[in-house]
Write a structure and sequence with these properties.
InterPro entries: Chitin_Synth_Reg, Sel1-like, TPR-like_helical_dom_sf. By secondary structure, the chain is mainly alpha-helical. The chain is built from 19 helices and no strands. It has a domain of 221 residues: Tetratricopeptide repeat domain (Serine Threonine Protein Phosphatase 5, Tetratricopeptide repeat).
Length: 503
């Protein structure tokens, strides 16, 4: 059963300080330093990934053929995407799951004498087991383990009396990086696709590079090599490099070639990029909405937590439709948004929060569902969702969400720190009046100035005015003006940004 809306309606997304004056005042990582007492692998001086390494080492008594690829590290988009293009940021892929236990359990002592190994001993046993095998997959697993271990290695606070300890910890981290990248390079030189991709991903993210800077000049050739071995993620990343000119010349035709190669392996990111290219006429292709929708549908069918974007894009297209290509279907649009939100895609969750708050696109007004989806997006620092929660906490929802000025201020502050101009203005107002926090005119002025820098006209008016405290105080809640439309009615809520003070 849908939760009832509060009697006091949620303030819309913008307001004028003058309106407030008329309102009434209301109320796991590693905990020990892993040691690398014996580096079995040292990084090669030669950086060319396509040249074989003929060094004699303990690991490779022969050059076995690459084992079948069992895992492909996937790309994580790092930021919110515009509807017209897919983020191509180079993000460190997660460690692949272990294909089987590498260590036996003979070292464990059950019963009262039970004891677990230290991280140092675990790393040494892992290294010893990896050296015994000629399986490149197990060696690759160990290299990934060392990268993860080095990144999670605790570094003590950098204080004057702690310099030697910090320096030692940093040296251990660098030793692990060198050992891991050295092993990855040897595996890559011997044609192991996962190692080629993972090493390229490290270079692209500044892992194991000079001054930890991104190095696409070394990453791009490795992406190409892995793509030639059929690595779908590598083909997609090679396409993004060609599209953006990262480590190579900017060539749309070559980018399309790599995207199509990855799409043939049902890579959802490549399918999405091809769909957007056809919809908007990008990458040198003619605008073709019909083919664009086909690509997006294929991407949506293969959507993952890393690539849920096609679900969101298709949902928006079904809200407005495309003449002779795509019909309007609100029910299906909501279903697609729900799938995106389930995969953790913040824009889809935020859109659903709006739909259930205002009763848009055929959704019933439901405070519980609205707050639920806003929370999903807000937990991922979606600034508009954070600000939407500010409004909900200002008025509360009986049986769903208790009214809390303090929570309203904190969510507004989080949205403001994310760069949302209207949230900056709201934080300034909260500090000026004392809603959810101690009143502080100097801090309020600072937030107003930050909002002005973002182009907020209301903040500029407040700074030009007398800046006399507005009526209110702790517990004050801003409500809708009498002349505003009801968002629960057809077409309602369209003017919600015109006459509101905070939102």
């Amino acid at each position: 059963m849908a939760a009832q809306r509060p009697q006091r309606q949620r303030p819309p997304s913008s307001f004028d300080p003058a309106a407030v004056a008329q309102q009434q005042s209301e109320s796991t990582a590693l905990n020990a330093d892993p040691s690398n007492s014996h580096n079995a692998w040292e990084p090669d001086d030669d950086d060319d990934a396509d040249e074989p390494d003929n060094d004699d080492d303990d690991f490779f008594t022969s050059s076995p053929a690459p084992a079948p690829l069992t895992h492909q590290p996937s790309f994580h988009p790092d930021q919110q995407l515009p509807p017209s293009s897919l983020a191509t940021n180079s993000i460190r892929a997660p460690s692949p799951p272990l294909s089987g236990p590498l260590l036996d359990h003979s070292h464990l002592r059950p019963g009262k004498q039970a004891a677990l190994l230290s991280h140092e001993r675990t790393l040494e046993l892992y290294r010893a087991n990896a050296k015994k095998t000629q399986d490149p997959e197990l060696q690759f697993e160990f290299a990934v383990f060392m990268i993860d271990a080095s990144k999670s290695l605790p570094i003590p606070p950098d204080t004057p009396g702690n310099l030697l300890v910090v320096e030692k910890a940093l040296e251990k981290r660098e030793e692990l990086f060198r050992e891991a990248t050295g092993l990855l390079k040897r595996l890559a030189d011997r044609g192991h696709p996962s190692s080629q991709y993972f090493l390229a991903d490290c270079y692209a993210n500044g892992i194991g590079t000079v001054k930890n800077r991104q190095d696409f000049d070394r990453a791009y050739p490795l992406f190409v090599l892995a793509a030639k071995h059929g690595h779908a993620d590598a083909a997609y990343r090679a396409g993004t490099c060609c599209e953006n000119g990262w480590g190579c010349r900017r060539e749309s035709a070559k980018a399309l070639t790599y995207f199509r190669k990855a799409a043939a392996a049902k890579h959802p990111g490549a399918l999405y990029r091809l769909g957007i290219a056809d919809l908007n006429g990008e990458l040198g292709v003619s605008r073709n909405p019909k083919d664009g929708v086909k690509w997006l549908k294929r991407s949506a069918e293969n959507a993952t937590a890393e690539f849920p974007h096609a679900l969101h894009e298709l949902a928006l297209l079904h809200e407005r439709g495309i003449e002779n290509v795509l019909f309007v279907d609100y029910e299906y649009s909501t279903e697609l948004l729900a799938q995106g939100a389930e995969l953790g895609y913040a824009p889809s969750a935020y859109r659903l929060g709006e739909c259930y708050e205002y009763g848009k696109v055929g959704c019933p007004q439901d405070a519980a569902l609205s707050i639920h989806y806003y929370n999903i997006a807000a937990q991922q620092d979606h600034r508009d969702a954070c600000f939407a929660l500010t409004a909900w906490y200002l008025v509360g929802s009986p049986g769903v969400l208790p009214q809390s000025d303090t929570e309203a201020f904190l969510w507004a502050q989080k949205a403001a720190e994310g760069g949302l101009a209207k949230a900056m203005y709201a934080v300034g107002y909260f500090l000026e009046v004392g809603i959810g926090t101690t009143a502080s005119m100097p801090e309020a002025i600072q937030w107003y100035k930050r909002a002005v820098e973002k182009g907020d006209k209301r903040a500029a008016q407040r700074l030009k005015g007398s800046l006399k405290p507005l009526p209110g105080g702790p517990g004050a809640v801003v409500t809708r003006g009498e002349g505003e439309s009801d968002p629960g009615k057809p077409g309602g809520g369209k003017d919600k940004d015109k006459d509101c003070v905070i939102m």
